Amino acid sequence: MRIRTKLGVAILTSLMCATSGWAADSRGEPGRGSGKANPLKNVYFGEQHLHTADSPDAFAMGTTNTQEDAFNFCKGNPIRKSTGGGYTVQKKTPYDWCAVTDHAVMMGLLPMTFDKNSPLYKTKIGELIRSGTSQNLDAAFGIIMASVQKGAPPVGFDNRDLQKSAWEAKKKNANKHNDPGKFTTLIAFEWTSIPYGQNLHRNVFFRDDVGPEMPYSTLDSDRAEDLWTYLEVQRDMGHETFAIPHNSNLSNGLMFPTRNSYGQPINKAWMKRRAANEVAVEILQTKGTSDTHPALSPDDEFAAFEGEFKHLLGTGGVVGKVNNSFVRAALIDGVGWQESEGVNPHKFGIVAGADAHTGFSDNEEFNYTGVHGINDATIEARLSGAGQTAGEAAIMFGTPGATAVWAPENTRTEIFDGIRRKESYGTSGPLIRLRFFGGWGYENNLHQDKDFVKKAYAGGVPMGGDLPAKPDSAKAPTFVVWALKDPNSGNLDRIQIIKGYYQNGYPWEKIYDVAWSDGRKKEEAKGEIVKIVTTTGFKVSTEYRSVPAGKLPPVGNTVDVKNASYTNTIGDNELSATWTDPDFDPALHAVYYVRVIEIPTPRWSTYDAKAAGVEPLGMVPASIQERAWSSPIWYTPAPALVKKAGSYPGLRDYLPE
Known about the structure:
2 domains
């Protein structure tokens, strides 16, 4: 059973809550309007991955916007963009919280190269940056990247006192903007390991107002195991902390490895350390989606989303491996490791972010102005199709994503704890509201109950949780999902539940449509031919495709490419369902997560093309289907039910012995 609704934009807008005040309750968010701590939790949208002028690469790209600017932008205030002519930028919908994650490497030092009294003024990098020419800025960026890969700071930049003063200033500014109940900031930094262009970056977050004495950079070590030691030491010192890996899609198979950084097969101790130190994973940011890849999920019709960025960073065009590089496969391998070794190293919650190097996060397609300083600050640069940042053309970058956290109230501890317990989800930018619960005894139509959130918590677990032990009387788990559209974005096409499991030593995945719009019926798709309209640039092509039996027909596409517009005459505002796994095997470990899909809307590059009066470049799609991904819910069988495989080829990068 499912529910779909169509609500007026004014009503939807009243349900949205940002920093400006409390919103009215919605069916999936009861108690929000009370203004008090909500035991059923409110959703808080924010940014967990953002760079300012304190990141050396951002400053080398001409960015001078500060952490002060970043927090003000997230709050919904207008700021002046430091590149592209210094025009004003402002979010349409403010965020509730923000973490600035400047690179720990040389953090805050490059702005000092403009101070004649600073020892950094006469450095080679300082001279290059102050010249202001694009060629010299690129040269400065090259020196910085080379130093990161070599593990040694550039000449003159090994001054620990300067590094400490910059870090203390960042912590002080974060605390200044932290306003419990109204706007939350987190003390954070990025650890930027990139051996031979293989992205192993992690962002590091702290729960308290003090934070560590110093951040940990790849000049200290580029091995994840050493970062975990730093985190463990910080917790011993009273600073609760965790790390979140990002851009696994550009890791060349090293983000979710079968071997540790020393080349040894991973063991239980390694797996436990990873699970304890890395509680979530970033599923999307401006350098692409890390959910899955068409080569890994060939039966997933929505797998190819914002995957145009393909090359390893700074390699000049080397395409990385897809195996061990994507989140869905990692989640599925995680339950394989659980079955094989009794430990799941990939028990990740889901977040999304920006990785913008501009000092602000423009997550709205219609409001996008680039993410890499002077490299993409103008429409002409963004639409040029020429290689720029990290060797990739600006048009290949997507808009930043957003992270949503379910928490009783908007405070630093509650946002941190919400991510840590994995009651979070990521979106490709729109502020879609999403609930996901799992249990054994839910009523068949629980999603129709006005008190479904309260009953779902009482009878099961939310996203990020483990299903309780299966009762003897239960045949299969039941899940409750609910989604509400962003009033400033497209209607909802469908809700899907993605299931992963291991069987006979190999990974498997299944995708179930559980709620969808416009009264479409799966039984209508019995192998008949349907008309598919595709837009690339100004060109509109029509093809006739066979829809497999039982497959949900496409929602349609209202995008007017020439005018960069669309209409919400298709899709629904709200979707929900109660769904029981029809293929459940109690002997198999399994992981479930939700994907919500919007109707097609214009990509940022289509808005840019309209503004410039040119055709959109055909190298990227003119329209996209924005989405949200929930954190998973896991099922672990009772030990007596488990039938371990003789070997697990799916967990090895070599042939079994």
